[in-house]
Amino acid sequence: MTANPVSVDSTPSLISPDVPLDRSIPAVPLKLGIMASGNGSNFEAVAEAIASGELNAKTQVLIYNNPDAKVVARAERWGVPSILLNHRDYQKREDLDAKIVETFQQFGVEWVIMAGWMRIVTPVLIDAFPNQLINIHPSLLPSFRGVRAVEQALAAGVKITGCTVHLVVPEVDSGQILMQAAVPILPNDTSETLHGRIQVQEHRILPRAIALAAKMYQ
Length: 218
Ligand code: GRF
Hints:
Layout: E1 14-16, E2 30-36, H1 41-51, E3 57-64, H2 71-78, E4 82-84, H3 93-106, E5 111-114, H4 123-126, E6 133-137, H5 149-156, E7 160-167, E8 177-184, H6 191-217
Parallel strand pairs: 2-3, 2-5, 3-4, 5-6
Antiparallel strand pairs: 1-8, 6-7, 7-8
The structure holds 5-O-phosphono-beta-D-ribofuranosylamine.
């Protein structure tokens, strides 16, 4: 299965910084922990980038919070262990985050990738992975933070949107931007068609932004 079987993207896009692929960085494989809530196409994109040698990394573990998340089957196919931490079982966000930190530490995780994690995270998680907690968001931040970013862009009538990979800080969708890709909004776009084209770009920039972050912060 590819990261995004439905979307064949022929619209122009701009990626910045469009750093050349350097397979020697990082020299030592990054130990990744991935957090996902749903479909997991970004999980798959990272797995494919690792398999192709584009990203020198190993996904140590997947943490997911919805029992029926499709990402679990993807993890199984890639031989990545997956752990369900259902947010409904925790009274406070901090309690869930403490369990996430404990789990990642058990699996030797150094870099955490929020790849479609639909929960707000707290300093309990953020402070455990300083500069090593990364999120992907389907807009050109700082525009359209928070939920339903694709719908927000359509409603605003902007003509270009995109996706952003950034470091995570306590304020939602506000940390240092690592990499962005621009995606034009076409006249008949629905949130589904637009999100599909944004995801094509997400899958391109997420592995490259992880490598870039490793170069900057490892
Ligand atoms: C992506 O669009 C990502 O930007 C957002 O959630 C979506 C997850 O998609 N945070 P997937 O589960 O990786 O397919």
